[in-house]
Amino acid sequence: MFDLIREISQTISNNRLRTALTGVAVAWGIFMLIVLLGAARGVVNNYQEQSADSSVNSIHLWSGTTSLPYKGYRDGRWIRLQDKDMGAITREIHSVSDASVSTSASGFSIIGPKDYISGGFMAVYPGEGKNMRINDINGRFINQKDIDDTRRTIVLSRDNAAILFGDADKALGQEVEALKLSWKVVGVYSHRWRKSSFVPYSTYKAITGSDGFVNEMTLHVEGITTETEAENAENQVRSVLARRHEFDPADSNAVWVWNQFAGYIKQGKAMIYLNLAVWVIGILTLLTGIVGVSNIMFVSVRERVHEIGIRRAIGAKPKGIIMQILAESVAITTLFGYIGLVCGMALLQALGSMLEDKAGFSNPTVDISIALQVTAALVVAGAVAGFFPALKATKVKPVEALRDE
Fold first, then answer.
1. CB 3.0 to 4.6 Å from 214: which of 44, 101, 118, 191, for a disulfide?
2. What is the Cα 19 distance to its own chain's centre?
3. 392: burial class by Cβ within 10 Å (0-12, 13-18, 19+)?
């Protein structure tokens, strides 16, 4: 073992400039690979965190304007979604397990004992809590009992509760005023960016005399695992609405649809392709360093022809010669590769601290699994770089090598 280390040190010292230049190429290749992998991981993390902010097995619907004439109707007709559409969709489409609607009510303030907030609230069904992933909540979200009994209950964001009551922890069970009525605070939630206030849809409808038209409808689908199944569910929903509101089912502008599950599958595939592309680019960059290491080992073999000839003459087997050259090649590649790895990880840590979810990145660092994969790539690269020089070393004939000066 010590002899091998000594021989590796001698190889490096005998070719200092060439080794240094080649080492920079190897380090740069690994550095770029780590940075690219970390950047890709940052994009994936940001996408996953954004997906976690809402239920992915959802289809979202908004009112639209027809772009095709249908049964005597001209194009340009406004199609408005209604709360009654929920029942028709859940009855006719078995994959839709739940449906909810929401509408925004603005133009008034919510008044608390300490201060007030403007912007109104959103009138929702209980399913919106699941859709918006409002999990971190003190108290509860709007429930079915609120809907059935048309209760005047309200759910506040933690930031708004702090404004209204001076302390968010004091809000639960207290009352606020909106639309000249008192509303009981039944929940205070925390979210990365949502700050809306929520009240039962039935209560809002009863108080305002709403005609049942809604801003948005959300459908939760179950038993769907493929992009094709998700698109089929979307087409079924569009067909039901087309029949109820009399527009062409092929008119994509009549009702705006965001098939979140289909989009989730597509983006998941895109993340896979992104990782693959990063590995390909990184490996190609690393190849430049591998060629340099291979050249160093060729030079080393040529300079050590006499030594190799003596070893062969005293009984050294070709396998031993190959293992020595490969070990030297792997050692040089790994040494400089780890320099690039450490520099790359240091840069990613710095970028992670500076960006903090900006520019579409979230925690752009590499974990232990990535480091192990890169280590494996280094070992393979070193072995590939030393294979052909090692093969050449085994072809050295002892008689000719001993005559070599």
1. 101
2. 39
3. middle
Strands 137-139, 216-221: parallel, antiparallel or unpaired by DSSP?
unpaired
The total of other beta-carbon atoms located within 10 Å of residue 66's CB is 21
Tens of pLDDT, residues 255-284: 998 887 777 677 777 777 777 777 777 777
Short-list 276, 284, 238, CA closest to 257: 238
pTM score, two decimals?
Answer: 0.59
Residues in the chain: 405
Amino acid at 195: K
Question: 53: which 2 tokens?
Answer: 């902010």
171 in Cβ contact with 165 (< 8 Å): yes
Q: Would you report the helix, strand and coil content of the chain in percent, each value rounded to 5?
A: 60, 15, 25
Distance of alpha carbon 30 from alpha carbon 252, whole angstroms: 48
| Mean pLDDT score of the chain | 80
Predicted confidence (pLDDT) per residue in 159-186, tens digit = 999 999 999 999 999 999 999 999 999 9
* DSSP conformational letter for 140: -
List 61's β-bridge partners, or say none: 217, 257
Contact indicator for 227, 266 with CB cutoff of 8 Å: yes
User: Do residues 95 and 228 touch, judged by C-beta distance below 8 A?
Assistant: no
**What's the start-to-end Cα distance of the chain, in Å?**
29
Give the C-alpha separation, 97 to 53, whole Å: 20
Give me the amino acid identity at 188: V
